[in-house]
Amino acid sequence: MYAGKRVILASQSPRRRQLLEQAGIPFEVMVSDAEETFPPEMPAAEVPVHIARLKANAVSASFGKEDVVIAADTIVLLDKKIIGKPVDRTDAINILSSLSGRIHEVITGVVIRFNGSEDAFSQTTEVHFKPLSREQIEYYVDHYQPFDKAGAYAIQEWIGAVGIDRINGCFYNVMGLPISQVAERLTRL
Ligand SMILES: Cc1cn([C@H]2C[C@H](O)[C@@H](COP(=O)(O)OP(=O)(O)OP(=O)(O)O)O2)c(=O)[nH]c1=O
C-alpha cells in the first residue's frame, strides 16, 4: 500500500520503529543528532513540532526531495510545565511522584517532509494516573529503568497496566507516534 516511496524515520526510538512496522510501512532509520532545544518563551504546545523539525533538519541533507522523512518528539506536560526524560533514579522517582494521582498531557509533534514541502502537526493525549505508592514507583523505576522516556514512564509497560486509569486520545501518541494520523498523511502524499 505504501510501496514506491523511500521512507526515512529520523529517530532512534524503538517504539517509533515498532509502530511504523505495525502499520505495515516499509522504512529505513537514520538517527538524528539534533540538539533538542527550544526558545524559553515558546508555548509548550509548540515545542514538540519545533524539536521534531530540528530532528528532520539534521537528516534531510542526506536524502533527496523524493524521499519521505519522518521525525517526531514527545513531551509530558504537567501544570503547563514540560517534563522531559529523567536524569537519574531520584529524578525518575520525583517525576512519577508528581504524576501520581493526577492528570497530565502527552504531546507528540510530527514532521513529515516530502517533495520540498512539510506536513507538521501534533496530537495531545490526556493521561489519568492512579495514586501510586512509593513502593510501586520504586519497583517500576528499578525494574524498568525508564530513563529514555519522557515523564519517566512508558504506558506500554507494567506501570501503564496497573497505574493508569484511563486516557483521552490516542494510546500510540503516548508511546511516541500518533500512528494512524501518520499513516493517513503518508497515503495522501
Ligand atoms: C510517555 C511515554 C514516552 N515514551 C517514549 C517515546 C520516546 O521514545 C521517548 C520520548 O523521547 P523523544 O525525545 O521524543 O524521542 P527519543 O529520544 O526516544 O528518540 P529520537 O529523538 O531519536 O526520535 O519516550 C514511551 O515509550 N512511552 C510513554 O508512555
TrEMBL record:
Its cofactor is a divalent metal cation. GO terms for cellular component: cytoplasm. Belongs to the Maf family. YhdE subfamily. The keyword Cytoplasm applies. It comes from Chitinophaga niabensis. Pfam families: Maf. It comes from the Bacteria. PANTHER family: BIFUNCTIONAL DTTP/UTP PYROPHOSPHATASE/METHYLTRANSFERASE PROTEIN-RELATED, BIFUNCTIONAL DTTP_UTP PYROPHOSPHATASE_METHYLTRANSFERASE PROTEIN-RELATED. This is dTTP/UTP pyrophosphatase. Its main location: cytoplasm. GO terms for molecular function: dTTP diphosphatase activity; UTP diphosphatase activity. Nucleoside triphosphate pyrophosphatase that hydrolyzes dTTP and UTP. May have a dual role in cell division arrest and in preventing the incorporation of modified nucleotides into cellular nucleic acids.
